[in-house]
Write a structure and sequence with these properties.
The protein is 2% helix and 47% strand. It is mainly beta. It starts with a strand and ends in a 5-residue tail after the last strand. GO terms for molecular function: carboxypeptidase activity. This is Carboxypeptidase regulatory-like domain-containing protein. It comes from Candidatus Coprenecus stercoravium.
Amino acid sequence: MMRNRILFVIMAVSAALLSLTGCRKPTASYGNLQGRVTTLSTGEPLYGVSVVYGDSAVYTDLDGAYLYADLPDGLQGVWFRMDGYYEVMRQVNIPAGGTTECNVSLDLVLSGWAAGAGDSGYGTILRTTDAGRSWVRQGSTAMVPDVRLTDVCAVSDQVCWIGGEADTSARRSVLLKTEDGGTTWVNQGSSLGGLPPVSISAVVAMDGDTAWAVSSDTCVVLKTVNGGSSWSICRESASVQSYSAITTMDGKSIWCCGSGLSGGVVVDYSPDGGNTWSEFNVPAAYELQQPTDICAVPGPVVYIAGTNTMGVLVSRDGGSSWTQTVSSDVDLLSLDLYGESYGWACGAGGRLYLSTDGFSTSRNLSPVPAYSDGVITSVSFLRDGKRGALSVVSSTGATGAVYFTEDGGDVWNESSLPFEFSIESVDFVGGAN
């Protein structure tokens, strides 16, 4: 899926925390803010929450604790932010020469979207607000073209981007966006940099303004910085025949993968949001194998899934070398990651692989026996690493279902859907798209 969009602003946290956790006496006209951030539902500590004042931030440690030194005294506004959780703002009174405490609990966002093939005259869009237990259909023939929708990127409980195959009847591309939780959807396909209609294979975004998209029938990477009013080409590769997936950790480091003109797999990387790019060949992939999804965690450690027994390949040195880390005899179509250890990969034959050690080892769950001859097209988890959903289609691709889990993937139950839709992609807010 490649929604991969994991927000790990935790890089260099350990070094920063070492400088913050020691005793530090504030100077006159300045004071300190300290406290602890936990989850609202369970009270567990949250690691890596950004505590933001102005343009600066500190981050919580493994116990959820933070210390923000030398804030101006008086009444100040401080934000607490973490991907996949509702952000919180607190007004705190900073004492001159002293320290005040502010403990905060963040509430997990339970919203997500799923998208798939056209049904009843328009592409399928489903939304959940209860972590995948139940879904309702959104859109209409007036808002959503009658095409196969291929990828979902859920940014918040209000903002979501969806890409789809080209709308040949209207002669335009399909890049849908909602800013009101799905009440209305707007197709931005006419603003794609003067390109003829292309099929969008993947879209990723960190907010409602900046997003990137790749196409299955071109060699370009598209970018918008104005909410989709206009899209420009930020990458045009001479080595790629078609792109299949794109992901970002932080809105700056962009990874995408595609099929090379001469066969094999190509991975592109931008360290600056798409301004400059580096290209990596993947010799661990064979000529007839094609990449289907890509995910990354800090390091950077990069994973790609693919077809024709590719399984899951990993690069632990930023794309320079690749090895197979999950072996599979079926096509794998979607990846999702939670933290740096937990990962899921799914695909044909009803396969779902779960790893708790960064895909060094994995086990096949086969979670939906009713679709053992079908395809699990997509998997996504909330930011608690426990609740998630997968989409599965029948062997014919005509019908399908969505299943949800609340224990990290060991037990799955069928979700409540208004109809047996054929779903291609599912994504929760804050997940790895």
